[in-house]
Specification:
- With about 120 residues, the chain is mainly beta.
- It has one domain.
- The protein has a five-stranded mixed beta sheet. It has a two-stranded antiparallel sheet with strand order 5-6.
- A hairpin with a 2-residue loop joins strand 5 and strand 6.
- The longest helix is centred in the N-terminal third of the chain and has 8 residues.
- It is globular, with a radius of gyration of 16 Å.
- The mean pLDDT is about 90.
- It comes from Sphingobacterium corticibacter.
- This is ASCH domain-containing protein.
Length: about 120
C-alpha cells in the first residue's frame, strides 16, 4: 500500500472530513514531478499510449494540518483515482508553459479523487 503525505490548510482539512471536498489538486513543478508522476532515469515524465503523463499511484493520502511543531491533526483518505490536467490559456487556447533552469515545461496539475476516510 502506497501513501502520499500532504500538508493542507485547516479549512480544506475540515471540508474533506465533512465530505464536502472530494478532490485535492497540486501544481506539478520540476522540483516535485517525481512525487506526482512516473519518470525515467533522466527525470522525464513517462507517457501512456494516449500521450498522457503516467501518474504515480497512491492508495491513500495522509493529510496533515496545523503548525509544524508538536502534534499535528492528521487524516488518512483513500485515493480513488489520480490524473493530470494540462493548463491552457483561455484567450489563445494554447498550453501554458514556463521556463525553469533553461528548460521549458508545460503547466499542469495533478488531481486526486478522494474516497472514504480511513482514519
Amino acid at each position: 500500500m502506497s501513501n502520499l503525505t500532504l500538508s493542507i490548510k485547516q479549512t480544506y482539512f475540515d471540508q474533506i472530513k465533512a465530505g464536502e471536498k472530494k478532490f485535492e489538486e497540486r501544481e506539478i513543478r520540476p522540483n516535485n514531478i517525481s512525487k506526482y508522476c512516473e519518470v525515467d532515469d533522466e527525470g522525464f515524465v513517462l507517457e501512456d499510449e494516449k500521450d498522457e503523463p503516467v501518474t504515480r499511484k497512491y492508495d491513500t493520502i495522509t493529510f496533515l494540518t496545523g503548525a509544524y511543531k508538536g502534534t499535528r491533526e492528521k487524516m488518512i483518505v483513500e485515493v480513488k483515482e489520480s490524473y493530470t490536467v494540462i493548463l491552457f490559456d483561455e484567450a489563445t487556447g494554447d498550453e501554458i508553459t514556463y521556463e525553469h533552469d533553461g528548460e521549458t515545461y508545460t503547466a499542469a496539475i495533478i488531481r486526486y479523487e478522494l474516497g472514504k476516510i480511513i482514519c
